[in-house]
Amino acid sequence: MQAMSIFLCVYSGDSTLTTYPVQSPISPLEAHLSLKQVYIAGLWDNTGKILASLVLLSDAENSDDPLMVQAVSNLFQTYKQTQMLFPLAVSAPVSRIKFHPENGSIEQALSYENLEFLCSSFYLDHSISGRA
């Protein structure tokens, strides 16, 4: 199983989102051709607060695959922005993002603006309970 992160988001206590496009020798569009699947993973602490999220490409067909869970864990521990947050996390759920070509191209879907919007929406959708 292969996984490659393409976008990292860190959420601060005041609902501020800081995004970090991930530099890679291969572009997300090129990677998508071989990896095919897009996922988003989050780090939650013991209060249910979302600490960070990561958008990644993978060839895994199932977000529950133990190799996917391990890959996400490794990716969060790789970046200095999330290394200090990782020990605070009690879970790191992974969800597959379904791409609908009739709504736009993969280039549009993987653009900085759309990835930033995805991270913002992810935070808002999962913090309705007021735990954010």
Overview of the structural elements:
By secondary structure, the chain is of the alpha+beta class. Helix content is 33%, strand content 30%. Strands 1, 2, 3, 4, 5 and 6 form a six-stranded antiparallel sheet that branches. Strand 3 and strand 4 form a beta hairpin. The longest helix has 14 residues, at 112-125.
β-strand number: 6
Biggest β-sheet, characterized? 6 strands, antiparallel
Shape: globular
* Overall pLDDT: 83
Radius of gyration: 14 Å
User: Roughly how much helix do the residues carry, as a percent range?
Assistant: 25-40%
Strand fraction equals 25-35%
Unreliable spans = none
Q: Output the structural class.
A: alpha+beta
N to C succession of SSEs: EEHEEHHEEHH
Termini separation? 32 Å
- Note the total helix count: 5
Topology:
Elements (H helix, E strand, L loop, with lengths): L2 E9 L5 E5 L6 H8 L1 E9 L4 E9 L7 H13 L1 H4 L5 E3 L2 E4 L8 H4 L2 H14 L7
Antiparallel strand pairs: 1-2, 1-4, 3-4, 3-5, 3-6
